[in-house]
Amino acid sequence: xxxxxxxxxxxxxxxxxxxxxxxxxxxxxxxxxxxxxxxxxxxxxxxxxxxxxxxxxxxxxxxxxxxxxxxxxxxxxxxxxxxxxxxxxxxxxxxxxxxxxxxxxxxxxxxxxxxxxxxxxxxxxxxxxxxxxxxxxxxxxxxxxxxxxxxxxxxxxxxxxxxxxxxxxxxxxxxxxxxxxxxxxxxxxxxxxxxxxxxxxxxxxxxxxxxxxxxxxxxxxxxxxxxxxxxxxxxxxxxxxxxxxxxxxxxxxxxxxxxxxxxxxxxxxxxxxxx
Length: 275
Ligand SMILES: C[S@@+](CC[C@H](N)C(=O)[O-])C[C@H]1O[C@@H](n2cnc3c(N)ncnc32)[C@H](O)[C@@H]1O
Prior knowledge:
The protein is α/β, with parallel strands linked by helices. It folds into 2 domains: 8-73, Chemotaxis Receptor Methyltransferase Cher, domain 1, CATH 1.10.155; 85-272, Vaccinia Virus protein VP39 (Rossmann fold), CATH 3.40.50.150. 44% of the residues lie in helices and 19% in strands. The chain is built from 11 helices and 10 strands. Strands 6-2-1-7-8-10-9 form a 7-stranded mixed β-sheet. A 3-stranded antiparallel β-sheet has the order 3-5-4. Helix 10 (201-207) runs parallel beside helix 11. The longest helix has 19 residues, at 85-103. S-adenosylmethionine (SAM) binds at residues 22-24, 75-79, 83, 112, 114, 118, 143-145, 148, 197-199, 216-218, 247.
């Protein structure tokens, strides 16, 4: 079968359906990117062109399975251990202090956790702080992509994930194997993975109440209305006064008034206002 081309009409239909379901925004400049990412799916599903593929996604009995494939295929899962360290230090510093003082435990949620490097970093840093017993912390981790979550659960990582990871951490919590590093059960046990689409308002609210949410390097893939919808969903999962951490290229200052920004010399993060 020769490679199918996507028409402008089918591109717009697919783009709108993807945005509605996942929030991910394929703007006009990404028409050919989408075409090349989906070409193999047409072959897999034995459909002759993109129009037929759109119909498959809207009405075929296996459409939900196909959407799950797309959740893995269309997401960018770039991540690594100890990414944007300054924010991590704030969690293990003032946020942990406040939570221990007020409630005696910390519940933190990595809400777009990709392959697990972010929640495992949080767990390792909490262990390294020597200030909390195992029963005082829970690290929740969720993502849209089934394939990324599977890799997170496996806890096996290659060199690239350790690009800024302190060597003593690798030594303490990982076991070298032939082609990478396997994470110790001690850390794996602290993190609970689940699948969640952050557009799903009841699903997001049901995760709460948590003390802090890391939702970093996700909003950049969404248009403004979707960004607003997601951060407002997340506000409902935070306990009153809880904290939201975004990626350093992401800001919600003019997007919603549910949060107040906290600006330090090292990082910016947000506190949800009392409701
Ligand atoms: C670039 S990764 C960020 C990983 C990590 N937070 C970090 O900063 O290193 C973005 C993640 O967002 C996930 N994602 C995309 N759309 C999503 C949605 N609607 N709900 C939940 N996760 C989503 C992707 O699957 C991907 O794993």
